[in-house]
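User: I've been going back and forth on whether these two constructs are worth ordering. Before I decide, could you fold them both?

Assistant: Sure. I'll take them in the order you sent them. The first construct and its structure tokens:
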Amino acid sequence: MDEIKNKITDYQYNFLKKMEQYIDEKLIFFGSVTRVDFIKNKSDIDIAILSDNVDATLKKLQNFLHIKNSKIRKSIQKFHNYSDNLIYGYKFNYDDEVNNLYLEILINNEKDKNVINEFIKDNNNIPFYITFILYILKIMYYYLNILSYDTFRSIKHYLMGLYFGDSKLQPLLTIKHK
């Protein structure tokens, strides 16, 4: 957690620290919060959690964050450059607009850690020119309000798709959790 401490507010840091202690699993940060294109109080914080008991970890997170089952999506994904296996997990967002805390959380089985960690490493180390363009896009969206949310997301996904390939960004399938 210390690697992102200076990028987030004290409230956000303390909240994430409490969440990590409550679920008793390490929070693995990736995406813009680990790069220079993160914008404090605007960008979401991407978190991966690897657990040997995914269902128990999910229940703890639901309890801590007060997340309903309807907000959770089961994810089936294939990371072509890292493995031929399907990776099963869960994905959901948590938004606390009062404290400008926006989380995107992925939960996967510990047995898939090598594949997930390789993807995270690549995601955290995208080429500078993509990071620079993402930062400009975020300024245009968050501060200048000259891009709609859909346009912003579309361009962002296009850029990331250039680097990763479209199939590595989106899950093959997401379904609502019961």
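The second construct, handled the same way:
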Amino acid sequence: MARTKEASNRDKKEKKDRIQKLAAKKRLASKKGLKKPDARVGGIIRKKRRYRPGTRALMEMRQLQKGGTKKQRRCLIPAATFRRIVEGITDEMTGALGRDKRVSSRFLQGLREETEAELRHQMEIAFKIAIHSKRKSVDKPDVELALQLSESPSTHIYNERT
């Protein structure tokens, strides 16, 4: 039996309807933040959130600047790296004496927090120096000047007088 023009038009209309339904499903899925259905799992996978450039960095800064207890604050220096540095320094110091070295984890944690606090303080001073010289970025001379200012004997003399 030969195909008639009517059957051909009906097929085209059905195909067009299927395409429109599929497009509607995709729009709905994108509005909900969903991807296409996963055949392996049988469910719908959530689409990974995409932030605009700079938003993620600002979120991390806010998280790091958030106050709270010491346990809530996350250290920036990795623990293993800091431990290796401390062990290297203690090796140099105890090598001449011929003693064994032992450092408790609580001591290392406290030392790490204090080191970070001092570094943060020095960087704040260096940043203020950079702003004073009408720049937005911190350079090597700014950090050197901040170190010199923190080591200056004039602050010790002033503290002795009061």
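Notes on the second construct follow. Residues 5-32 form the longest helix (28 residues). The chain has a mean pLDDT of 78.
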